Amino acid sequence: MGNSFMSILILGLVILLAGHSVQMAPALHASLQQKFGRNIYRGLYSVVAVIGVALVIDGFGRYRADGMIPVWDPPTGMKHLNLLLMLFAFIALIASQLPRGYIKARLKHPMLVGLKAWALGHLLANGDLGSIILFGSILAWAVVNRISFRWRPVGAEPPAPRVFGDVLSVGIGVIAYVAMLYLHPILIGVSVFG
Q1: Which residue, 141, 150, 162, is CA-closest to 16?
Q2: What is the model's pTM?
Q3: In terms of domains, do 56 and 94 share one?
Q4: CA separation for the pair 107, 87 (Å, rounded)
């Protein structure tokens, strides 16, 4: 049950998270960019990320189809908490890609905050081994990544926040959240309402 495809999931996570961890080592990151050139490095980085994501999706999908391995039975309230965390996650993820608003300024690293909220919500709402490995690994990686900013070089002073960035972040985040509520069963195969 479920465990025959766990190795694909774990391999995908290792590739995905290791590739994304290079940025946590500024000297290595700079060395690789210098060795390959910025564009080739970005291309390689993207290829590694795509391979990792593809293996995670394939491995987790096969694991679920083969029969998930239950570890604990989350209370129904955890699914409700997950829905709230997902709304916050979408707003934070969208804020990371838009002009700097007060949300982005306050969160400092909204992409990581959104990723942590997404992983934590799914970790709380799913009690099977594959979900614990998938979401627990991503949550742990995001926490370590956030901590790593303490020893990374500080960039230029960001521009002053503007309310417009927040309006866009909340508006687009809510729209994306609602869309995902309905698309989740189609894309992921799991209804968020069931």
Answers
A1: 141
A2: 0.91
A3: no
A4: 15
Helix axes 110-125, 129-148, angle to 10 degrees: 160
Q: Which neighbouring-strand residues pair with 128?
A: 70
Domain range for 51 is 1-68
pLDDT beyond 80 at 152: no
Structure tokens at 142: 């995001």
Beta bridge pairs of residue 70 = 128
Neighbours of 86 (CB within 10 A): 22
Taking a C-beta distance cutoff of 8 angstroms, is the pair 98, 165 a contact? yes
154 has a pLDDT exceeding 80: no
Q: Do residues 62 and 128 touch, judged by C-beta distance below 8 A?
A: no
Rounded CA Rg of the chain: 18
Burial of 115 from C-beta contacts in 10 A (0-12 / 13-18 / 19+): buried
Residue 84 and residue 125 in one domain? yes
Last residue of a domain, one of 46, 68, 90: 68
Phi, psi of 128 (to 5 degrees): -95, 160
The predicted structure's pLDDT at residue 27: 87
pLDDT reading at 155 higher than 80: no
Q: Is the pLDDT of residue 1 over 60?
A: no
Domain count within the chain: 2
